[in-house]
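Regression test case RT-17, inverse folding.

Input:
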């Protein structure tokens, strides 16, 4: 894997949407700071994050975190936690999980456990299920 010249960071890529003000952006970026290590594999100019909240501080509020990375499908995470901090942590952790899952699905060749093992050609097996070359 090659290093990215301008790695994405939460601070560079985060936008605040509905329900948040620009004044909220700094403390949200601090909470999402642990995403920096996961985002570092992507270019900053092709990565965007947007966090929004519907019915803020009301029962049933819904926090949404959307992530756009060029060449990949948009990733959306949501949380209905009543506490805003808990909801932000929930969407952050879910996004990290989804990005990790997407990377694993896209690049299984780098993970020995996910590589398929080649099965022998059935024509090369004898009646006992052994390879014909395995006979003594």
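Golden output:
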């Amino acid at each position: 894997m090659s290093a990215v010249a301008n790695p994405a960071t939460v601070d560079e890529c985060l936008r605040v949407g509905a329900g948040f003000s620009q004044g909220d952006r700094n403390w949200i970026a601090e909470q999402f700071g642990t995403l920096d290590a996961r985002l570092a594999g992507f270019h900053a100019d092709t990565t965007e994050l947007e966090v929004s909240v519907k019915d803020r501080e009301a029962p049933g509020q819904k926090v949404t975190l959307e992530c756009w990375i060029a060449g990949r499908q948009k990733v959306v995470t949501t949380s209905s936690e009543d506490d805003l901090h808990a909801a932000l942590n929930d969407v952050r952790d879910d996004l990290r999980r989804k990005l990790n899952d997407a990377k694993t699905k896209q690049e299984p060749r780098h993970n020995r456990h996910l590589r398929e093992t080649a099965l022998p050609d059935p024509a090369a097996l004898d009646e006992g299920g052994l390879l014909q070359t395995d006979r003594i």
